[in-house]
Amino acid sequence: xxxxxxxxxxxxxxxxxxxxxxxxxxxxxxxxxxxxxxxxxxxxxxxxxxxxxxxxxxxxxxxxxxxxxxxxxxxxxxxxxxxxxxxxxxxxxxxxxxxxxxxxxxxxxxxxxxxxxxxxxxxxxxxxxxxxxxxxxxxxxxxxxxxxxxxxxxxxxxxxxxxxxxxxxxxxxxxxxxxxxxxxxxxxxxxxxxxxxxxxxxxxxxxxxxxxxxxxxxxxxxxxxxxxxxxxxxxxxxxxxxxxx
Length: 245
Prior knowledge:
There is one protein chain. This protein has 245 residues and is an alpha/beta fold. It contains ten helices and ten strands. The chain has a single domain (17-236), classed as P-loop containing nucleotide triphosphate hydrolases (Rossmann fold). The strands form three sheets. Strands 3-7-2-8-9 form a five-stranded parallel sheet. A hairpin with a 2-residue loop joins strand 4 (83-88) and strand 5 (91-96). It is globular and about 55 Å long.
């Protein structure tokens, strides 16, 4: 999805956008990453998929492939993480330790590992500063599961996207099919349900809607409509920075 006309930063107003962070939270398959990328492109903001940070930690853990305490391995992998979400052409690329791992991080084994390591408080603490430092020089849109509740609870505007679980499952099927990735439907359905359970009920920073977040049920909405609803809210809160182009 490319940037659309109709909204942008005022000439000379990028300094005013520094420090503005728009959190977009929600479960897997809710459309939060697609919407967050679209908003970042519309605003000319930086973008970070926080879930990719946890996938990067999971990737590091799996690459170590050695005996040891799982939690200790995960916390070590999270420290000094060299990670960048980089826009190249029309795509956002994930670069870990100097290597483009965009495709690798979407592997189902990595996604499951990301959910496991994200439940470890030491991992979350190690990545908290990374996320909070992101976007200090420019505005940023960050999606995840605890961005509005834990990472940026003071943000003036927060979004929480959700959808019926069967809708989210079908979206995941379509995503994998489009990428030519083989999968077992029943196993994938159960994996997503387990991930939901783990994310919503973990002891550290569980997935939940911030009390002041704008909630959007994307079950019956196309991406363009979701983005338009978000744009309307952004314009009402950040009108001093954002204007019609």
